[in-house]
Amino acid sequence: MFEQDDHQNNEPPRRRRTGLLAGLRNSFLTGLVVIAPIGLTVWLIWTVVGWVDGFVLPFVPDAYQPETYLKRIFGEDTTINIRGVGVVFFLVFTVFVGWLAKGIIGRSFLDWAEGLVDRMPVVRSVYAGLKQIAETVFSSADTSFDQACLVEYPRKGIWAVAFVSTSAKGEINRRIPRDEALISVFLPTTPNPTSGFLLFVPKSEVIMLDMSVEDAAKLVISAGLVYPNGKDPTLPPDVVPLREKIDA
C-alpha cells in the first residue's frame, strides 16, 4: 500500500515535467515560425546583393570603388565590406542604357549591333533565345497569367492547380485534332513554381478558379498548406468578409 501511495505521489511531478517540455517545444516551434521567414528573407537578399556586387564591381574603375573612398577616409588598413554599391551601379547603368535605347541614336546603334550578331552562327542562336526570354519576362506589356485553374493531371481523376496563359495559336492550334477551342496552361511544380509543364487542354476540361493567381501560387509553393482563406478555404477570398458582415 505504501508503494502505491509513493507511486501516486510521484505522478504529478512527472506530468509537470512533461508539460514543461511540451511548452518549451511549442515555444520553440512558434519562435521558429517567426524567425525562419525573416531569416531566410534577409539571407536571400544579402546573398543576391553580394552576387550582384561581385559581378558588377569588377567592371567599375578603381577610382569609384567604395574601398578606395574608405581607405582615403579611414586609412589604408581599412577592410570594410559595404554591400549594395554594385546594385546601385547596376540600377543606374540599366536606367541609362534604357533611356539611351529609346532615342534615335540608341536604336540605330542597337540595330547595328544586332545585325553584327546575326552574322555569327552560334552567337546568333544564343542571343536570339536570351532576347526572347528577356522580352517575355521583363516586358512592360501584360504578359502575366490570366487566371488560376484546375486540370486533370497526370491522369483522369487527379486534379492539379495550373495557370491559364493564352489560347492555343499557330501550328499548335492547327495540328491538334479537336472539336473545341484549346487553351495553353502552365502547370507548376511544388515547391518551386518556376519549373513546370506547358499543357494544351480543351477549354471544357479546365475548371476556372475564383482565387487570384497570387493565392494559387501560394497554394502551390506551400504544398497545399496555405489556402487563400484560412477561416473557410471552401469560399473565394471576396466571399468571407461578406459572410462575416452578415453574421455580425
Characterize this entry briefly:
With 248 residues, this protein is an alpha+beta fold. It is built from eight helices and five strands, in the order H-H-H-H-H-E-E-H-E-E-E-H-H.
Overview of the structural elements:
Helix 1 crosses helix 3 (85-102) and helix 3 (85-102) packs across helix 4 (104-117). This protein is α+β, with helices and mostly antiparallel strands and 248 residues long. It contains eight helices and five strands. The relative contact order is 0.05. The protein starts with a helix and ends with a helix. A five-stranded antiparallel beta sheet has the order 4-3-2-1-5, with helices on one face. The protein has helices spanning 2-56, 66-74, 85-102, 104-117, 121-138, 170-175, 213-221, 240-247; strands at 147-152, 159-167, 182-188, 196-202, 207-208. It folds into two domains: 1-102, no CATH class; 147-245.
Highlighted features:
2 domains; disordered C terminus; alpha+beta; 248 residues; 8 helices; 12% strand; five-stranded antiparallel sheet
- Spans of at least 5 consecutive residues with low confidence: 239-248
Shape assignment: flat
Tell me the series of helices and strands, N- to C-terminal. HHHHHEEHEEEHH
- Structurally, the number of domains stands at 2
The tally of strands reads: 5
Give the radius of gyration.
29 Å
- The N- and C-terminal alpha carbons lie at a distance of 59 Å
What's the arrangement of strands in the largest beta sheet?
A: 4-3-2-1-5
Biggest sheet features: 5 strands, antiparallel
